[in-house]
TrEMBL record:
<feature type="binding site">
    <location>
        <position position="130"/>
    </location>
    <ligand>
        <name>carbamoyl phosphate</name>
    </ligand>
</feature>
<protein>
    <recommendedName>
        <fullName>Aspartate carbamoyltransferase</fullName>
        <ecNumber>2.1.3.2</ecNumber>
    </recommendedName>
</protein>
<comment type="similarity">
    <text>Belongs to the aspartate/ornithine carbamoyltransferase superfamily. ATCase family.</text>
</comment>
<keyword id="KW-0808">Transferase</keyword>
<comment type="subunit">
    <text>Heterododecamer (2C3:3R2) of six catalytic PyrB chains organized as two trimers (C3), and six regulatory PyrI chains organized as three dimers (R2).</text>
</comment>
<dbReference type="InterPro" id="IPR006130">
    <property type="entry name" value="Asp/Orn_carbamoylTrfase"/>
</dbReference>
<feature type="binding site">
    <location>
        <position position="250"/>
    </location>
    <ligand>
        <name>carbamoyl phosphate</name>
    </ligand>
</feature>
<comment type="function">
    <text>Catalyzes the condensation of carbamoyl phosphate and aspartate to form carbamoyl aspartate and inorganic phosphate, the committed step in the de novo pyrimidine nucleotide biosynthesis pathway.</text>
</comment>
<feature type="binding site">
    <location>
        <position position="99"/>
    </location>
    <ligand>
        <name>carbamoyl phosphate</name>
    </ligand>
</feature>
<feature type="binding site">
    <location>
        <position position="77"/>
    </location>
    <ligand>
        <name>L-aspartate</name>
    </ligand>
</feature>
<feature type="binding site">
    <location>
        <position position="49"/>
    </location>
    <ligand>
        <name>carbamoyl phosphate</name>
    </ligand>
</feature>
<feature type="domain" description="Aspartate/ornithine carbamoyltransferase Asp/Orn-binding">
    <location>
        <begin position="146"/>
        <end position="285"/>
    </location>
</feature>
<feature type="domain" description="Aspartate/ornithine carbamoyltransferase carbamoyl-P binding">
    <location>
        <begin position="2"/>
        <end position="139"/>
    </location>
</feature>
<dbReference type="InterPro" id="IPR036901">
    <property type="entry name" value="Asp/Orn_carbamoylTrfase_sf"/>
</dbReference>
<feature type="binding site">
    <location>
        <position position="127"/>
    </location>
    <ligand>
        <name>carbamoyl phosphate</name>
    </ligand>
</feature>
<feature type="binding site">
    <location>
        <position position="249"/>
    </location>
    <ligand>
        <name>carbamoyl phosphate</name>
    </ligand>
</feature>
<dbReference type="InterPro" id="IPR006132">
    <property type="entry name" value="Asp/Orn_carbamoyltranf_P-bd"/>
</dbReference>
Amino acid sequence: MKNLLSMEHLTNEEINHILDRAQAFENGEASSLSRTYNVANLFFEPSTRTKTSFEMAERKVGCTVIPFDAGFSSMTKGETMYDTVKTLEMIGMDAVVIRAKEDEFYNELLEGINVAIINAGDGAGQHPSQSLLDLYTIKKEFGSFEGLNVTIAGDVSHSRVAKSNATALQRLGANVRFLCPEDWAGEFEAHHSWDGLIDTSDVIMLLRVQHERHKVNKSFSKESYHEEFGLTIEREKQMKETAIIMHPAPVNRDVEIASELVECERSRIFDQVRNGVFARMAIVETILKERD
């Protein structure tokens, strides 16, 4: 595990190692890195949670975080991703964390680049660190994944979170179901109503409506989406007593989920943010150790 590019590239053993290390970090264990590493975070899309979470995680495992402002980088002058990353390698980076608009941006970095590449989200492709923190959140709650019913609801076709989590959860033994409007299913076979899902789900994972990734039909309305596909207060009352609510955030309140439910007793939305630091500490430590 010398890079983290896609959940499809991770074995179950590697996933469980990261989850175990995340738990160890939450329990107060110190990082086992043997030296100080230099890391840069290259974010070419807006981000609050992922970017600051990686920065916090990198510092907590003892890395030096080198500032990088995508808006003032040479890529605005036409420099390629490869040349930018190669330049950072020559300056002395050990790892780069990258979020980019292009699907599988990392393919051009697999030959000739000798720093660790961590994918912080590629277009509508994959978001492996989000998936790993989601898995950690679920495992803390239920102890395992075997036989859990996980419903992923929302803008499935454009969601790197849905793709990353579906890959990992199914391989770990969970039953994954999708819920979305008919034209948002993409490659997935999806349900188009909550019937049979709301009262059988152990985890309901809501996805943000991604207005920036597609032109929402003019007939789209937040109110009608919430009524048909959102987690309303009435639907929450039908959930299993032990079921939890998740969302990668940012949340469109009263669209994907009723505002009153964002911090309700069964919500783990802000717990996911906290868990993200521990999961990303585990990711950064694991990859840098493999590099030595």
